[in-house]
Amino acid sequence: MAISRRTLLNTAGATALATGLPVRRARADEPIKLGAIEDNSGVLDIYGKPIVMANAMAVDEINAAGGLLGRKVQLFQYDSQSDIALYTKYAQQLVREDKVDVAHAGITSASREAMRQTYRRANTLYFYNILYEGGVCDRNCFCTGTTPAQAVEPIIDYAMKKWGNKTYVLAADYNYGQITAKWVAHYVEERKGEVQKTEFFPLDVSDFASTIAKIQDAGPNFVVAALVGGAHISFFRQWAASGMNKKIPLTSTTFGVGNEHLALSAAEGDGILIAGNYSPELDTPANKSFLAAWAKRYGDAKVVHELAVSQYQGIMLWAEAVRKAGSVEHDAVVKVLETGLKIEGPAGTVAVEPKTHHCALDIHLMVVKDQKLTIIDTAKQRPPSDTAQYCDLQKNPNDNKQYEVKI
Amino acid sequence: MDFAAIVVLEILYMIAFLALISAGLAIVFGMMRVINLAHGEFVMLGGYATIAAAKHGINIYFAMLVISPVVVGIIGLIVERLIVRFLYGRMIDVMLATWGLSLLLIGLVTLIFGNTAVSVPAPIPGYQIGHYQMGGYNLFVIAVAALLMCAMWLVLRYTRVGLVARGTMQGAEVVAALGYNPSTVYMLTFTVGAALSGLAGGVMAPLTGLLPSVGGAYVAKAFITVITGGAAVIAGTLSTAALFGTVDQIVSFASTPVLGEIAMLALALVLLRLMPQGVTGQFFRNST
Amino acid sequence: MSASGFGVGRIRWNWFAVLAVLLAVLPLASETNTPTLLAIWSLFALSLALMWGYAGIISFGHAAYFGLGAYTYAIASFNIGESTVPFLLALAVPALVAAIIGAMMFYGRISDVYLGVTTLVVTLILNRFMNATAGDAYRIGNARLGGFNGIPAFPTLNVPGDPTTQIYGTAYYYVVIVSLLAAYLICRWILASAFGRALIGIRENELRMELLGYNVPAYKTAIFAVAGAMAGLAGCLFANWAEIVTPSVFGLGQTAEVLIWVIVGGLGTLVGPMAAAVVLGSLKLALGHQTTIDNSLVLGAILVLVVLLIPRGFAPSSVAWRRRFAQSQVRRRQARGKRRRRIALQEAEP
Question: Is residue B126 less than 8 Å (CB to CB) from chain A?
């Protein structure tokens, strides 16, 4: 092949220029395109499958109500099979081939970071609707899930008042767990408490025997367990099997997100204190009609978890913004969202914070009882104060990074 | 003192765990030189069988000790007849086929049971050592593993079936010449191996969160234990399980479970380097 | 193992040229993102096919070197910025690690399935370690290892010497394709050399080669390192394509996938595994377009069927089919010839 590097790059540049510019034509008969990439199979499908269901339901609901701006919404959904390479691949597919108007995609933070720049470069509006460690600061990206600061303070406050000031922290060994553990330490120390020890567990650890013995050795007033995923359920089971669940109370900010309360028997799960954005027991009209619609569509609503609800709310938030903007154009929709747009979702009010592109959300304190998440208290409209420490998109609209929260 | 007792108990438990999840693979690999990559899924199916039976009101012990092995044994038999028997002597093809099978089983179980983690509570309450609270069910796991190993040893050593099985290991032609059909022996071996995996899954079910994809966590550990053990089925599995379990737990107690696992893997590397034919290639040459 | 396709093989230059031209003009007809990924997978399959198919070294942990390449590039490019040195390091580090591990195994006379386990253990250790590096303390220079979430947003490949000009899109496609074709030619060159012939000899009968005076462990270690470097190259190219590296590059899934490509493509060929990577990779991508059937189910069923129906992998099987077809042609021609002769004889008889 006798192509010099220079001509090669020139051609490449020309091609990139030719294909890279999004050409958008908004015609009334053309559907609005919504892209979604989730793990519908593989190890993460416990989170992904309900999200896939929520996507289909949200889009059908919007269409049943007449669509947006008189146009139908069409869903482009891909199964990333719990493989990071496929996120990159399908994100390219969404922006280049399908030319979607908005993408609601990603579960893990790694998947978000694998896609975020692709959407930004292609000027495709991006929603990440999952609870995560916080800190993303990108004008093209809206994060509608909870971040650690939102959920950690209410639960620590409650637990320390009720049980005492010594705590032992267990957390999943990745960004989310590490940062959550920092916030726990921050709020515990702020209240003159003591974190005896913090232990981190990679997501595939399923043997907690040595840890349970070490906890007993330390004798905390309560344990914070920010554990994630199928393997970590073993902790709650082994904790109960040793009889510790009757002796030292457990708290968690992640329990219930993967429907852990259904995996544990009533005897094992009862009494665990949780802080999160959603419980199926929420007694609001929005939640009731959401669950009824889900049950009607899929048989029963047992699999609904916080991530699925969060995804549904993210799509509804975007839809509301499109309605208010009267357009699906990127900048018009962002402008409306940045007015502090609010919707009432199944989990409560979702209000966009213009500075951070994160959302103020209700945090519910819940206790596990008979495999149900019974609500005992609600902290209304907690702001994403962790991200807000660093991120101000009103002042620096060109910011594009994930800040690491330092406490 | 109490703490030392706990460490010893946890070490015993880890050894029992490794021996249990490896037994099925050890038999199939030791007798037939078949590497069954769907082994982890057999364990997973055993867990699901126990939980499904327990949810239908069947006594939990009966479910894990009888129903799980029988159900998974039957599945193993079907797999052997439909797939594996065409591939004997082709180690690589068996691996590929059983890898495919493992994906297939994960998909099937997801389809049937959904992908939410399921479980049954441990039927034995915790007990007290000094001021420490311990899981009583762990003792049960240790007992089951010990009994299983004894039973396997007795069968292989002192019964006709065991003799034929050991004979097949050493030379299938000889056994065939003596009037035993190797194809039948293989079929039964595979079935028994699957049943043992089912038993392991049933017994472990109350201690872990069960997901369709959980098999992956078992297969690598079992695989390393069995192969580092070498050719002798029981002596090999037991000796490596003992070594790995001890190192894993001591390092876990001293630092973190992750370092425990890494230490265990590093030990496997060292053992394989020193004894390239596995532990029993070096010692216990004439054991079972 | 004397079946066809198990010898040295040779290059059919005419086919090679046709393929190269087709790959060169592909960007005119299609987008290049998918072909780039498939070519990277193909390169990864090639590295294992060389080592396993020709030197008989089985590895259940080939992902270790793929992952090392990816991580080396990401970490080095964070620290250096300009991508030439990181690119070379991404070849050198996996090669070096492979040489060390290989020497340990081959001078220790580890063989057969024990080799499989040893390589698997190395990969698992790397995977466990990388998964446990989410803490702040784990950083190499400017690069945070990041644990489960991996390392995003490192500087990608640039034109050598000019850090501001990134290579991406179609240009990057050409980089990958040239790497792939060059790697293929290097493999062919190795196999045709005395070194390669000795390797095949070792595969066929290790003891005999040893008695003939060949230093068998040295040969095996060398090819292990070469395959490691090639896998590292694939990993580095993958990192640049995905723009993120995560510990899943060391995962069991990655390791199993490359094994499957090589087995399905056929042991003892180079083109087979490369093609299998492209076909099975495309299949995986295509499956992701639907969310109604669980994809594990579909992929699993396909694999089982392939093993049962096409026992030796596609490439050797197709050679066998071609041969059988040719033989049947010959037989038919012979039969026809005989018949004609018989008729001639009959006619000749009075």
Answer: yes
Rounded Cα distance between B260 and C318, Å, is: 48
**C178 and A1 in contact by Cβ < 8 A?**
yes
Does some domain include residue A374?
A: no
C27 contact A CB<8A: yes
Q: Which of residues 271-310 of C touch A (CB under 8 A)?
A: 284-285, 287-291, 294-296
Find residue A223's DSSP bridge partners. A168, A250
Across chain A, which has 407 residues, the per-10-residue mean pLDDT values are 42 42 55 92 82 94 92 92 83 89 91 90 93 91 92 91 93 85 91 91 80 87 88 84 87 86 84 92 93 92 90 95 93 93 93 93 92 91 89 89 78
Which residues of chain C form beta strands (DSSP E)? 139-140, 143-144, 151-152, 158-159, 162-166, 244-245
Rounded distance between C-alpha atoms, residue A263 and residue A269, angstroms: 9
Q: How far is CA B63 from CA B13, B53, B57, B86, C272, in A?
A: 21, 6, 10, 32, 47
Are residues A298 and A269 part of one domain?
no
Q: Which chains touch B (3 or more CB pairs under 8 A)?
A: A, C
- Look at phi and psi of residue B146 and say left if phi exceeds 0, alpha if psi is from -120 to 50, else beta: alpha
Interchain CB distance below 8 Å, B92 and C263: yes
ipTM of the assembly? 0.78
Angstrom distance (rounded) from CA C260 to CA C350: 66
Min Cα–Cα distance to chain C from A78, Å: 5
Q: Where are the beta strands (DSSP E) in C124-183?
A: 139-140, 143-144, 151-152, 158-159, 162-166
Report pLDDT digits (tens) over C93-122: 999 999 999 998 898 888 777 888 888 888
Which among A233, A259, A276 is the end of a domain?
A276
Report CA-CA distances (Å) from C167 to B193, C75, C174.
53, 19, 10
Q: Higher-confidence residue: B9 or C163?
A: B9
Residues in chain B closer than 8 A to C298 (CB atoms): 107
| Residue C305 pLDDT grade (very low, low, confident, very high; cuts 50, 70, 90) | confident
CA B236, distance to chain mean position in Å, is: 13
Among chain B residues, the shortest Cα distance to A244 is held by B133
* Lowest pLDDT segment from A353-357, A372-376, B15-19, C303-307: C303-307
CATH number at residue A332: 3.40.50.2300
Determine the residue among B87, B224, B227, B267 to mutate to test chain C binding: the one whose Cβ has the most chain C Cβ atoms within 10 Å. Answer: B227
Residues of chain A positioned with their CB less than 8 A from the CB of C174: 3, 8, 12
Residues of B with CB below 8 A from A264's CB? Answer: 119, 121
Q: Residues A258-314: pLDDT tens digits?
A: 888 887 888 888 999 999 999 999 999 999 999 999 999 998 888 899 999 999 999
CA A117 to chain centre: 18
A193 and A231 in a single domain? The answer is yes
* Contact yes or no for B93 and C311 at CB 8 A: yes
Mean of the per-residue pLDDT values of chain B: 84
Q: Kindly report which listed range (A23-37, A363-377, B182-196, C129-143) carries the lowest average pLDDT score.
A: A23-37
Q: Do C134 and A200 touch (CB under 8 A)?
A: yes
Nearest residue to A303 via CA among A14, A1, A54: A54
Structural domain boundaries enclosing A176: 149-276
Shared domain for A159 and A303, answered yes or no, is no
First to last CA, chain B: 37
| Cβ(B109)–Cβ(B212) below 8 Å | yes
**Range A194-212 burial, b when 16+ CB lie within 10 A, else e:** ebbebbbbbbbbbbbbbbb
Please tell me what DSSP assigns to residue C349. -
